[in-house]
Amino acid sequence: GQQVMQIPQYQHVQEGEDFTTYCNSSTTLSNIQWYKQRPGGHPVFLIQLVKSGEVKKQKRLTFQFGEAKKNSSLHITATQTTDVGTYFCAGRFNKFYFGSGTKLNVKP
Amino acid sequence: GAVVSQHPSWVICKSGTSVKIECRSLDFQATTMFWYRQFPKQSLMLMATSNEGSKATYEQGVEKDKFLINHASLTLSTLTVTSAHPEDSSFYICSASDTSYEQYFGPGTRLTVT
User: Fold this and answer.
1) What separation in angstroms does the CA of A41 have from each of A35, A75, B110?
2) Measured between alpha carbons, how far is B64 from B105 in angstroms, rounded to an integer?
3) Please, how many CA atoms are within 13 Å of residue B54, restricted to the half-sphere of its CB?
4) How far, in Å, CA of A76 to CA of A59, rounded?
5) Of residues A42, A45, A99, nearest to B106 (C-beta)
6) Integer Cα distance of A7 and A100 in angstroms
């Protein structure tokens, strides 16, 4: 069935290093959303991508939507300890399918 | 803005009893509300989608008679776990959406069934 796969499951980086998480779908998505969940917190909306090949930036975060609208990535440049948390993608087919999340740990 | 509250934040109940969880959009009208279940260290699993004034749409594998959802107003949706069993213990999160595409998540409710 339809599902969204997300890798890696965990990522440990040194503060200042870059970080990337990837989402892949078996089906063409109408859009994809990204969320961040801090430890002990609830998911917070980051961004939505709709167009094929779309790239959006939020300060150190860069979001991409693949040309085929089947994959997406979130890249963080020069990570900071405040980036710690789990990043989820949610691809919309006929409903939202959440990826398994990538847990990011940043060592100071 | 766009604050969603959930009550209670945690609840412990005995097996066989029912528990009601409330989800409220505090500063906007939520035309759609979603109910998710999150297992430890796992992703969110969509249980159902509810639109104000109409019956909820349940995802495959979710028992509608066990997880009763009511969306009586544009600011309130409730999830009632009926005849709860230990396997229903989980973290339940609601989200609310207005006419935009963003989902605003509540803080979640930790349910423990003993």
Assistant:
1) 12, 22, 12
2) 22
3) 9
4) 9
5) A42
6) 8
Per-residue pLDDT of chain B (114 residues; tens, 9 = 90+): 689 999 999 999 999 999 999 999 999 898 899 999 988 777 888 899 998 888 899 988 899 999 999 988 899 999 999 999 999 999 999 999 887 678 899 999 999 999
pLDDT tens-place string over residues A7-47 = 999 999 999 999 999 999 999 999 999 999 998 888 898 99
What residues of A are in contact with residue B44 (Cβ under 8 Å)?
43, 88, 98
Per-residue pLDDT tens digits for B45-56: 889 999 888 889
Of A42, A96, A103, the CB nearest to B107: A42
